[in-house]
Amino acid sequence: MKKRIVIILIVFVLLGLIMGLLIKCDVPAHSEREGDDIKARVNRMVSRMTLEEKVGQMTQITLSHLLEQTDSGVKQPFRLDTTRLKEAIVDYNVGSILNNGGHANSRKKWHKMISTIQQMATEETRLGIPVLYGIDAIHGANYTQDATMFPQQIAQAATWNRDLVRQAASVTAYEMRASGIPWNFSPVLGLGRQPAWPRFWETFGEDVHLTATLGRSMVKGYQGDRLNSDSTKVAACMKHYMGYSVPRTGKDRTPAWIPERQLRQYFLPPFKEAVKAGVQTAMVNSGEVNGIPAHASDFLLKDLLRGEVDFNGLVVSDWMDIRYLHTRHRIAATQKQAVQKAINAGVDMSMVPDNYRFADYLVELVEEGKVSEQRINEAVKRILRIKMQLGLFEQPVSEPGDYPKFASREFSRLNLQFAEQAITLLKNKGQTLPLNPQATVLVTGPTANSMTALNGGWSYTWQGQQTDRFMESHNTILEALRQKMGRERVLYARGSGFDQPIQGNRPTRLAREADHIILCLGENAYCETPGNINDLYLPEAQKDLALRMAQTGKPVTLVLVEGRPRLISKFEPRMDAVVMGYLPGNRGGDAIANVLYGDVNPSGKLPFTYPRYPNSLETYDHKYTSTDGPQHGRGYNPQYPFGHGLSYTTFQYSDIHLSDSTMAEDGRIDVEVEVTNTGNRAGKKTVMMFLRDHYASVTPSVRKLKAYQKISLEAGQSKRIQFQIRPADLMFVGAHNRWVREEGKFSVIIADRRAAFVFNQSQS
Ligand code: BGC
After folding, report:
1. CATH no. for residue 318?
2. Number of structural domains, the chain?
3. Where in the sequence numbering do the catalytic residues fall?
């Protein structure tokens, strides 16, 4: 008996050793193991799900639909209607809920509401799958009171500072999680090449390289290097894939016509870069490109996104956009057919957002064999995977106590620094700025005393019109100036409205008492279609105010707070200084005041071309035939060029040094330039490297941004900056819509310096 026990024990020990050895030989890395683990869990779960449960996961409902209503139909902020919630979660198994029901609220209220939702999802459904809650926290946790509200994306781009973009995104993720929300519909990776478009300010501007690099930083800030159940990170959503940002008319959600060559050369790379950075989700463009709505485009969603870009994450529709394939775009004769087209093209989740017909139709379509169950499984796996990566199964709602830094001073300081680096000095005639601290100033204009204008849309509400109510604790431009210089030195007259003419002559009267006029013009908050305009010029009322102020003979500094470059050419020559504030967020007023008085040396650079005329909307990377010439009256004659931005100090560049004058197929050229601060105060400089292809089989652009670096220099200090050029940087999308490179001469352009080299493939 004893002998038998010993033998059995030996066998066990040996087996153990062998197993140990086997495992040791094949131990996957931590992340692989985790990935495999998630994959196995997802597969197991999908195999247990009914068809109804699966299409439920693919359904996204807006919060408003789940709120209590008064008899007259008014929705009660953040008060969930239990019957409606049960219908969504228990009857339909919805996978996702979005938005804020039209109201911002405290962190506590968010937490309570999301806990109720998650409790029902995890305890009252058969499989206990948590809900994926998503919002548009595009410049901070925008629906939570007191959250840190950063500059909008266009202003972030003006900093040309990847680190700041990443840090701010990581604060946003932290404050979202502090509110219980794990999914952010951000970043916008469309290019701002249509200045009239009301979502221009949601972009990183017109350039493909700037957008791709800042987009990468933003994704990393939201998600970290990997999501990995980190409860301070959220899933990012690159949007709007693709071609949404350049509607021909400039009006939101109207058709875009983008030749495939441009699609590939300009519009696709930022999305590709985000995928490389690990972005987990994507949202589809609401519009049509070349006659095909993106939501039903096999080319965009299958061939490019899944095929070429190799994106394997979750694709969510935009608002009601599957239904719109029928009702707006008219490519589907029925709503059911619209569902069939979108799901078969590759949309994984429908932002329905206010009924369950999508789910009903999809069940029918599968039963009729018009959508395969395999396609459904693929979509559901992507949805479950994200939920697992976010750690929602283990912790469906985060612990509020785990976020002590929410709305902290530290975050507010970062916010101020971010806004300060965005503010761009566009004109400074005779060193009008910085202002003399002894001077008395008149502050006037519709953006002077408005937190709403400083923040723009997607702030507390969709249209951002209630910001003043929420933001008493922050300074408008006027308040910041008064706090800084004392009330007695800062006079104020509202001047005109955004659109309403000046009432009375108070501004002119006060101007006589002042030494200097700070004229704050621009736009009020808007977003999407309500922000459509018919005229890119600033409204007449504001132009009149500007001319009236100029007539007083006092020096005028124009401060622009606006989401797109509204034309100012009718009065700009009469302005002594021009400061671009963009939409600088909650610390924007302080940042502008600091720049006006020289406590901060401005370092922002335009991330777009500021046009001068409505019929001359050209980007900096235009073709040679677009160059201006009085004899031609051609397109490119901007008010201020891309990359423009002055400083209170001066910089000088050395000649550019290239490591070689030729580059071979597998070669590389090192570029070096020395920058010196030749003025008498410290300053920041963004060194931008452009490439010019002299001759090519597809007409070349005059120049293209290839690299940039923002540096700080003390007065008198010099720094050597290095860039590299590789053959990949010389490529363009050729006549057959494929990336090619061609031999020939190229110039490196850095500020006013040039250096040339030759690309010669055959050279060894
Ligand atoms: C916008 C999206 C946004 C979505 C959800 C849509 O109207 O186009 O950018 O993410 O609403 O709020």
Report:
1. 3.20.20.300
2. 3
3. 318
DSSP string across 306-317: IIIS---SEEE-
d(CA 494, CA 506): 9
Please check whether residues 665 and 729 belong to one and the same domain.
Answer: yes
The CA R_g of the chain, rounded to the nearest whole Å, is 28
Question: How far does residue 713's CA lie from ligand 1's centre (Å)?
Answer: 41
Span 243-261, average pLDDT? 97
Task: Clarify whether residues 550 and 676 are in a common domain.
Answer: no
Q: Is the CB of 60 under 6 A from ligand 1?
A: no
Tens-digit pLDDT profile for residues 432-482: 999 999 999 999 999 999 999 999 999 999 999 988 887 778 999 999 999
For every residue of 554-604, DSSP letters joined together read S-EEEEEE-SS--B-TTTGGG-SEEEE--S--TTHHHHHHHHHTTSS----
Do residues 65 and 353 lie in contact, with contact meaning Cβ atoms separated by under 8 Å?
yes
Q: How far is the CA of 458 from the centre of ligand 1 (A)?
A: 10
> SS3 of 84, please?
helix
Do residues 428 and 541 both lie within one domain?
A: yes
Domain residue limits at 145: 50-184+218-236+281-398
| Length in residues, the chain | 764
Tell me: do 156 and 288 sit in the same domain. Answer: yes
pLDDT, tens only, 443-452: 999 999 999 9
Domain co-membership, 315 together with 381: yes
Q: Is 38 a member of any domain?
A: no
CB atoms under 10 Å from CB of 416, counted, come to 19
d(CA 318, ligand 1 centre) in Å: 6
Res 633: pLDDT = 56
Residue 245 is assigned to a structural domain of this protein: no
My answer on whether 461 and 349 are in the same domain is no
List all residues 6 or more positions away from 715 whose beta carbon is below 8 Å from its beta carbon.
649, 677, 679, 680, 681, 682
Nearest CA to ligand 1 atom 8: 318
pLDDT digits (tens, 9 = 90+) for 570-593: 999 999 999 999 999 999 999 999
Q: Are residues 460 and 486 in the same domain?
A: yes
569 and 446 share one domain: yes
Boundary residue ending a domain (360, 379, 398): 398
DSSP code for 501: P
Residues 6+ apart with CB under 8 A from 377: 46, 54
Q: Rounded to an integer, what distance in angstroms lies between the CA atom of residue 543 and that of residue 568? A: 8
CA dist., res. 473 & res. 477, Å (int) = 13
